[in-house]
Protein 1
Amino acid sequence: MLTHTLGYPRMGSNRELKRKLESYWRGEAGADDLALTSRKLRELHWDDQKQAGVDLIPVGDFSYYDHMLDNAVRFGVIPGRYNVEGNKISLDDYFRMARGEAGENGVAAMEMTKWFDTNYHYLVPEFKSDQKFFLADTSLLEQVDEAALLGHRIKAVLPGPLTFLLLGKCADQEFDRLDLLENLLPAYVELIEKLSAKCEWIQFDEPILALDLDESVRKLFNPVYRTFKEAALNSKILVASYFGGLGDNLETATSLPVDALHVDLVRGSQDLEPLLVNLADNLSLSLGVVDGRNIWRADLDKGVAAVKSAKTVLGEERVLVAPSCSLLHVPFDLELETKLDVEIKSWMAFARQKCVEIRTIADAAAGKDVEAFLVDNRGILGSRKKSPRVNNLQVARRLAELKPEDYQRKSTYTKRAEIQRGLGFPLLPTTTIGSFPQTPEVRSTRSGFKNGRIERADYESFMHGYIEDCIRRQEEIGLDVLVHGEPERNDMVEYFGENFDGYCFTSNGWVQSYGSRCVKPPVIFGDVSRPGPITVDWINYARSLSEREVKGMLTGPVTILCWSFVRDDQPRSETCRQIALAVRDEVADLEKSGVKVIQIDEPALREGLPLRKAEQPEYLKWAEECFRLSASCVEDATQIHTHMCYCEFDEIMDSIAALDADVISIEASRSRMELLGSFNRFSYPNEVGPGVYDIHSPAIPAEDDMALLLEKALEVIPAERLWVNPDCGLKTRKWDEVVPALKNMVQAAKKVRREIQ
Ligand code: GLN
Ligand code: ZN
């Protein structure tokens, strides 16, 4: 039985690719150096997979930046602003598309957006209505040659044309991008003909099959892939769907005129039965039975059972075994984790280990003797299930005892707002989102304390100094509601994870987020709870320095959930509720210690939205509940804020309102307050601070500009409910950008106050 992977992590065991890329961008490493490192990494990764027992080795999953950008470049989809002449795009042009270029002749990068519901971001191809396509870049063919020289059984991988077009955007006027298909296909066909002389398999990724599709899109699959099949004289063609079940696209998928269909049986386990009934005779079935999105050891028995049932119906030669999706979304190698608790580590599998798992499943289903592996797996899974480190009875009891009123503030917003007037804030109160510039000293002091180089007392006195500086500067700027600046936090999720039970941290569990940027999500392995206060002392230190209110600053339960690797042994909603209780405890302690304003950030609320419309209401329901559970323990007089950024808010407006925060600050300036349209349509009931300046830019926003935005906001939000703040936290900015920008912001607020009073 054949095994394969859909793709492998790109960065290398030590993030070698990241380092080399960044050194190339700094002008230190040359192009040859970068090319050599990349080639070595490809060779290593192919070999890794082969050693682990993978039969078909993916070629084309490597990228200098992003695979969708690669596909755009491959087929000549290069926006005019990059002024690329002729057919051959240079490495530097490629990076200009990916990253933009600063300076006078600078050019904006291509838009980046989330790859489905992962934390990976792709560059959005820009199509013109008269877009020409041609085979502009042949590096895939060259990589296939590299792999052939090494004697691998090759499966070339690239995005399929439908996913490519659908996930792109229109460069000029709006038009139906699928109209471009006719022009695009010949370029694909030219490549397929060339590949077909060199590789056994070609894989086209069509993850849009896991989305809601119009019938007009569905019916394109068959003719497109018929054309491809005819062009691929010597190669077999596999179409890959992942990130969800096929649902109502099942028939489209099972009637594809190609050689194999890959499906995600981790998220779409319910598809197996209908797949086996409906699969066309020409198709083999690749079963994605090992989770490519999470770090837990697979249940091998479960995988074997699925593969065996497919084998019974289809016969062994028509079954392939694979992870659910590309392994790009999990860390590289568990063996590199030397500091992880041994027991918890034994529950995990990273990319390398997952390759061994699929081999074992395939062998077991084929009747080979791998009993020892299976027994071992059963033992480990069993001990995880029973482990006292996973199960915390107290948490279970608290959850069971929750009552409806635990999810509700005591009074309505209107009543609370009246009481909160006692806080004495002026009309159009000014504030910031939480973090202030994280200088190199802040970072090094924090890491020094973490690794024992710096004593606690020295660490605290440094942090107190920073907080004091923040408070003084904010007072001088004239802000109304102050923050302590968040210097103690490396990351808004990691910080809380480190202080919760049920969390652990890897030292090398990096996953690519975009380009050279990787993130190391914390891991939730057990019931989450909060052993003791986390932020209370920091906030109260800040409060002791000023007459003005200082906001307590927390990360919300949904965001903590979305940015962690979560348990696979209970529903996400359950884990989220546990986190909500832990946050609630912190909220309660902050209030008890005298904090009057508490902000609970939920920037990831929109991200957690399921891909399928039908599943979204359920998610939104528990996400709202979890936020309210974390926030509702306070008195009416305590003001709860929340914050959201980087997303389109329109489709989740009802949920934003349902959070029932007294105040929400929200990113808005880049769209020149377009978002206010949704507030208008919806008439948002509580207080809002639409960001008046873009914190991603070093530019200092002018007072008049921000005043204009506030006036615009006042058209849809009454003055009593309008706050004034930047788009997001300021940790990536410099003090000499932040201070003048905030001074202008405060002046803008004062100007508009005068106008309306
Ligand atoms: N309070 C956080 C900060 O200011 C919020 C960050 C975010 O929204 N991503 O940094
Ligand atoms: Zn933000």
Protein 2
Amino acid sequence: MPKLWAGRTSGVTDSVADDFNSSIRFDCKMYKQDITGSMAHAAMLGAKGIISRQESEQLIDGLQGILDDLESGALEIDLSCEDIHMFVEQVLTARLGDVGRKLHTARSRNDQVALDLRMYLRGQIDEITELVKDVLKAIVDQAEENRGVIMPGYTHLQRAQPILFSHHLMAYAMMLLRDLDRLADCRKRMNLSPIGCCALAGTTYDTDRRFEAERLGFDGVVQNSIDGVSDRDFCLELMSCLSLLMMHLSRFSEEIILWASWEFKFIELSDAYTTGSSIMPQKKNPDMAELVRGKTGRVYGDLMGLLTTLKGLPLAYNKDMQEDKEAVFDAVDTVKMCLKVFAPMLATLSTKPENMKKAAQGGFINATDLADYLVKKGMPFRSAYKISGQIVAKCIAEGYVLETLPLSEYQAFSLLFGEDLYSEIDLTACVEKRISEGGTSAASVEAQIAYVKEKLA
Ligand code: ARG
């Protein structure tokens, strides 16, 4: 069948070229946005007298019929069409005849596709926002259920200082709160309507872009018609936000994988979020966390791909831009899948506080507190640091930990040491002394949890 755009050419194209050119396989996702966008356009054409009221109503009813039929399954998307825009217009024209041919007045597929994509993606941002909140709720729940659980905090993956497990979890909560902020910010710029920019230069008809924008829930209109049809910043911004979000989930996944190993055994994942091995009967593998970590690369790839596609494009629309959708849809779908598995995986894991505590006891992670003890007795920090290091070396050589080294041995290093040193280096005391804002003391972590809960409310 000749294309709707047959005219200058016969509209008869080679079938391989057709397949190559067509985007309906992936842009069919936007059928709803395409149809509601067209309904607003038909309403505007009628309100402005560009078509008659009656024609406008016929178009709107016809479009509603297509939407209903697609949703009920009475109508199937014809994958031999070039794209979703052409499909809808073709069905409409088949159903309404000449009136259907009036819909595309004062519009182009260039502003139409930009409109559909903005509408589709803002809905996806809303869904992703809810899914991120589910992860945040799981984090808060685990933090509350594990109040007071002490684990080693790490730098360089070497035991560093004792912290509360809930403090560590709240670090991830802060990252995800920033992700929510970024998504909301991205949505603001996305939520401006490009419809009415037409092919690139605007139109000679007396249209009302704000009428359409308002009907479709936009906050305003894009200000330059050339920009309106060439801009894909909103896709790139969203993929940047999603890349950061995935980076956070990936770091969290990495820790979950480590913590679930026999070497750590800080947590046990629920069976529902693990897999076995086809050969090794003892295995319980953290595949979900690994896949989240793995899929992070794919979301970065989507971002890099589209950045590269756009970098050399002259204004305004170029067909290269059709490549935007597979990239941004893949990023969105991947992130949603990851979030959907991450929240329950997190909610159902159980912790092993005794193992965390044991790990915290065995790495001299209270050595900073030992140095601080001497400082509080009047010694300059650098000297206290050196002596504490020498004491750690002695303990390692002779099989002690700081808690078991006798006072007489301490006093051989400095007479400032007294019996009270043992209570100062007690792990719980080490944690509880860190009352600085954002620190690891129970009170400080409670404040962090309250902060996150307030943001979620
Ligand atoms: N399928 C096209 C896309 O995704 C729609 C816009 C087509 N515009 C055009 N001038 N050929 O970009």
